[in-house]
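Structure in, sequence out. Go:
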């Protein structure tokens, strides 16, 4: 252990002298949190809505008011013909058009069906789906209000629904995205820092001295990992506190269990970087490999943005090798749900297996290089 601490002290002094590494570990993560936390947002508001009201009745105006007062739609102007709708859609001036046919108010007063049309720009499927759900909900609410107004306050629909959304009642996308950002930023910074550390020794010509030094491979790996683990933990905690302050991220579980899970995940990330450094001869190559092995899988295959269950079966198999997949379950469980590690023990066990495997492979390859 004394040898590992000596390597750790030497690596820490080198980190302090290397301002680029300090920037990567301490300042870049918070910058990424601010950038992606505000830029990535699934909450869709200020949807440009055009209106073609062919009826101009009290009922039609009530429907238009419901759309504009919902907080999701902004009035982008009135249209009066299909040609105007085409021009508005093609020019990207509107995302949706509400078309109210003639005699809509008369049909409503008679208790007859009064269909209205909502035309939605479908060039972005996710946005179109969200806009459609907003429109359907608003129309249903207005319809129910009109029925109550006609039949009296005693009217009760035969079937009613009382939704209860746990853990994120306001459906804030930030509470879904920020835990993913913590995993994403932690993986990238930790993997890059360790990947470049050993390759830097090779480029500077000091690797031969390391090979001849009277120190075993395990002590060398532990010594290389300790300073980066400490800095990565500090950076991760800074990200979490920043997310709590800026995005109202709750903390419903145990801080101690969160610290343990984060440490386990960062050890896997640091091990990934060490493994990359054993197959790279330059910092540029190491950086590119980290992007392939850490950046893309964490962003695309961890469940951070895209649900894993919606992926093809073959791709779902690949996600089992992505440590962020397990860390996201643990992190969201502790932070949002307040569960303990025993509840998510399978994911903790998978993270542990990944850490042991990747650090073991990195140690074996380093031992071969030094031998």
């Amino acid at each position: 252990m004394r040898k590992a601490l000596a390597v750790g002290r030497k690596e820490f002094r080198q980190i302090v002298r290397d301002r680029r590494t300090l920037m990567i570990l301490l300042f870049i993560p918070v910058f990424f949190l601010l950038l992606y936390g505000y830029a990535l947002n699934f909450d869709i508001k200020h949807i440009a809505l055009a209106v073609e009201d062919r009826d101009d009745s009290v009922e039609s105006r009530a429907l238009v008011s419901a759309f504009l007062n919902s907080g999701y739609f902004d009035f982008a102007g009135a249209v009066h013909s299909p040609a105007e709708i085409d021009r508005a859609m093609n020019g990207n001036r509107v995302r949706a058009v509400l078309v109210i046919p003639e005699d809509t108010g008369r049909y409503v007063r008679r208790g007859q069906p009064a269909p209205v049309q909502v035309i939605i720009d479908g060039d972005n499927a996710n946005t179109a789906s969200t806009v459609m759900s907003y429109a359907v909900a608003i129309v249903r609410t207005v319809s129910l209000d009109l029925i109550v107004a006609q039949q009296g306050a005693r009217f009760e629909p035969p079937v009613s629904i009382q939704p209860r959304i746990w853990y994120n009642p306001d459906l804030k996308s930030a509470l879904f995205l920020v835990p993913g950002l913590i995993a994403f930023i932690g993986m990238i910074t930790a993997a890059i820092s360790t990947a470049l550390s050993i390759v830097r020794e090779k480029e500077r010509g000091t690797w031969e001295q390391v090979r001849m030094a009277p120190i075993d491979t395990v002590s060398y790996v532990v010594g290389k990992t300790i300073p980066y683990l400490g800095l990565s933990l500090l950076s991760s905690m800074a990200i979490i506190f920043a997310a709590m302050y800026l995005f109202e991220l709750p903390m419903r579980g145990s801080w101690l269990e969160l610290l343990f899970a984060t440490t386990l995940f960062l050890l896997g990330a640091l091990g990934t970087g060490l493994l990359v450094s054993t197959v790279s001869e330059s910092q540029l190559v190491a950086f590119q490999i980290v992007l392939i092995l850490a950046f893309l899988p964490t962003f695309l295959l961890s469940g951070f943005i895209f649900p894993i269950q919606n992926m093809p079966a073959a791709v779902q198999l690949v996600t089992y090798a992505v440590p962020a997949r397990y860390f996201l379950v643990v992190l969201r469980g502790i932070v949002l749900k307040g569960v303990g590690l025993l509840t998510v023990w399978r994911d903790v066990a998978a993270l542990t297996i990944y850490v042991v495997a990747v650090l073991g492979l990195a140690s074996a390859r380093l031992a071969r290089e030094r031998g």
